[in-house]
Design goal:
homodimer, Carbamate kinase, globular, alpha/beta, 14 strands
Chain lengths: 259, 259
């Protein structure tokens, strides 16, 4: 029987809230078996950009990563946020190893091709080095990935953290029974976005299509769900979406996605 | 026979000069055998502090690391500088892994005790986890350490990069034949600091004491030499001090320190 590997993505709202982050990290540290944490930088990157007087570049509501923005993203994601999380996990006796996709050449990406919009130094993942990640896990280490990859030619690339989590989960699903967790501020996928008690306990692909067709999935949830079902098609066993309660054994309030 | 491990510390002047850094990284990438790179952040941390309007806190010419300074140091050392070096090494087919002492719990330190001066979040190294470093090296990875450690209780600490290099070299000297390199802007220890041709080829402990007594070692070189001789007393085989020429096989212009 294959061993279980938990890949956990935490959202920006948890990173920004010191109390929520502490609670999350306690849960995460006590999670048994092999595990990997993936994070972005939340609003801290925007804060530092503001302080440095660098105006955010947005096109159609999406951030453009130019050189000075990339430098700040690298400082905040790989520096400030990553090392704070790793230091707190060490204090909880979880032997964490802060990484980005460039470290140990774990995640390569290509600069997003310019079509209508030039997104700048944004990366679309091309390969995950699952062998090297497996070796690192076997040393008893818990990788903590920030949302950066590289192109193999010396260029770092800003990459969506949800996608990093699902691509890692897919890459390692041949070696492990992989469970992917999206942990954020809501308790799961909701029937009614205004009613936190309307959590849908289980969604399969057919139901997902119906929900999409009905237009009842919240806009922010769509890419997460899209990633999740793509990973379920590609070997990931299970995806769970919820808030901090995701890791409490007695809690059943979250959404499970199955292929 | 034990295998050789090269521990290389690069100085701030090389980090700040993109051409010198490229040249250095080419030499480093082609260095055979196990190797570890150690770097600080040079003047980049001061630049970012300036841009953020954070005044440098100095007492008796030494930087005090308060909380906001520490945050910037973490961003610049572990983020910007570390990831740029790792990305460039990956492009040179050197499988680098960016780290700080908190990662994989490799280097613990204690906050420097307050005596006459409170240095803030400055760390004095208490232990090096040589077993974990050895395991990481055996995966074919090249650790790239920035000048940060942790106290095991969740606190990151700013730590002198020269000391990190010598403590790593000492810690791994039971497993490896360790050679420690201090690579900076001068071609070696000079008889006459104004004459770059006055390199002293070899210095042993007796000669070192004489040079110290004569007052002929440049002030900036003293802590480097002190660290070097401490590491030679504690198992390190050899220390070499020089500029980029250190790694060119035909070049003999550098200073070798022996115990």
């Amino acid at each position: 029987m294959r061993q279980t590997l938990s890949i956990v993505k935490i959202g920006g709202n948890i990173i920004e809230d010191s109390v929520a982050l502490s609670l999350f990290l306690e849960h995460f540290a006590s999670l048994e078996g092999y595990k990997i944490l993936v994070h972005g930088g939340g609003k801290k990157a925007s804060e530092v950009l503001n302080k440095l007087g660098i105006a955010p570049k947005m096109v159609n509501g999406r951030r453009i990563t130019d050189q000075e923005t990339l430098d700040v993203v690298i400082m905040v994601y790989a520096g400030l946020v990553n090392k704070e999380i790793v230091a707190r996990l060490q204090a909880l006796n979880c032997n964490a190893l802060g990484m980005s996709g460039v470290d140990a050449d774990t995640i390569q990406a290509q600069k997003r091709p310019v079509q209508e919009i030039d997104y700048g130094f944004a990366g679309d993942i091309t390969s995950v080095n699952s062998e090297k990640m497996h070796q690192i896990l076997q040393l008893g280490l818990t990788p903590v990935f920030c949302a950066l990859t590289h192109d193999g030619k010396g260029q770092l690339l800003n990459t969506n953290a949800d996608t990093i989590a699902s691509e890692i989960a897919i890459g390692l699903s041949t070696d492990f029974h992989t469970v992917l967790y999206y942990c954020f501020e809501l308790p799961g996928v909701l029937e009614d976005v205004n009613d936190p008690n309307s959590i849908i306990a289980k969604i399969d692909h057919t139901m997902y299509q119906k929900l999409v067709d009905k237009g009842s999935i919240a806009k922010g949830m769509l890419p997460k769900m899209h990633n999740a079902f793509a990973s379920l098609k590609n070997g990931v066993q299970e995806v769970r979406i919820g808030n901090l309660g995701l890791f409490q054994k007695e809690n059943k309030n979250y959404t499970t996605l199955v292929g």
